[in-house]
Amino acid sequence: MPDNLFEDSERSEARPPLAARMRPRSIDEVVGQDKVIGPGTTLRALIDRDELRSAILWGPAGTGKTTIAYLVAERTKSPVEKLSAISAGVADVRKVIANARKFGRTVLFLDEIHRFNRAQQDAFLGAVEEGLIILIGATTENPFFEVNSPLLSRSLLFRLEPLEPEAVRTILRSALTDERGLPGFTADDDAIDWIAEKAGGDGRTAHNALEAASALAENNHITLENVQQAMARRVVRYDKAQDRHYDVISAFIKSMRGSDPDAALYWLFEMIDGGEDPRFIARRMVVLASEDVGLADPQALVVATAAAQANEYVGLPESAFALAQAAVYLSLAPKSNAIARAMIAVREDLQQRSYEVPPHLKQSDKQMSRKLAREGKGYKYPHDESDEDQNYRPPEIEGKKYWDPR
After folding, report:
1. For residue 54, what are the domain limits?
2. pLDDT band for position 186 (50/70/90)?
3. pTM higher than 0.90, yes or no?
4. Is the residue at 202 inside a domain?
5. Residue-by-residue DSSP string for 337-365
6. Last residue of a domain, one of 133, 159, 185
């Protein structure tokens, strides 16, 4: 194991990226996560007293999970082992456990813990429960979905949030003055502001952008034009298979339901630019047209379905026009959830019991009539005679109101 956790056992002669060079060396250098590791927090108190417990660090990429895990590991007096779930397996975990039994309580830092399946996670559950292993897991995915419940219940959970723009500005300015970063370089304030706003709360993305811009700078001075070239296309923080997928589609639906077309367009194009399947987006709009617009504007379902068909016919990027048109239409349409409320009320009654069909409403063709002559008797055909006094429901629910058009 290397003397310094910040260094790989096999060091490359190539200069590490700026983000790696500028990794905080102490807890006090961590920026933007005061709620997790600042003075007075639970994690900080446990670290300071070397009373560390198993913990899961959960948050988006570039928010400091790995850095905090490294710093926590360096502050403990226990042996430390580091594994990445990308390359490690159960055999590696068992080896760590065996060493812990030999040398005493061990801190195991497991990066990308969500990449271990349930069976693999079970491999160290017993050792965690015994206190033989202090697990520090880092994950970008929701641990309630990706981490075994028994393991999660034995760990403290800390949620890291995307860095605020001001925190990003702080780490960028530090990179321009620290000898590990880009000493000798200067940058215009608007260049720093541009990166801070466009990095999406990802410190690694911000460092990468600054380093790329430095390669374009003249006389070691980074301008707005330099960073705009370096970030010609903003990195959309979107993973179509994970948490961000569910968060953004939820924001998209709620924006249309709340009649905000601008917000709906914003979330729509975050999904499209992030590589989301446009058929998934179209299906959700078809659902909203029925569930949230309904008969307040029956044309909404037609528009949503047409957008879905247009997407199948032409595909992206051209189908983005149809999807955007539908999103705006659904946002501006009047809203009614009367159909949804009626469906819920009907199903609640059906869950109680199923009633007999009144005799006069039963099928009355000749074949059925031969079986049960009473069926269909008394039915009034509305086109031939008035049916004002005719009952169309089981007597048990006569007078029950399901449809309320408000």
Report:
1. 33-159
2. very high
3. no
4. yes
5. -HHHHHHHHHHHHHHH--PPPPGGGS--S
6. 159
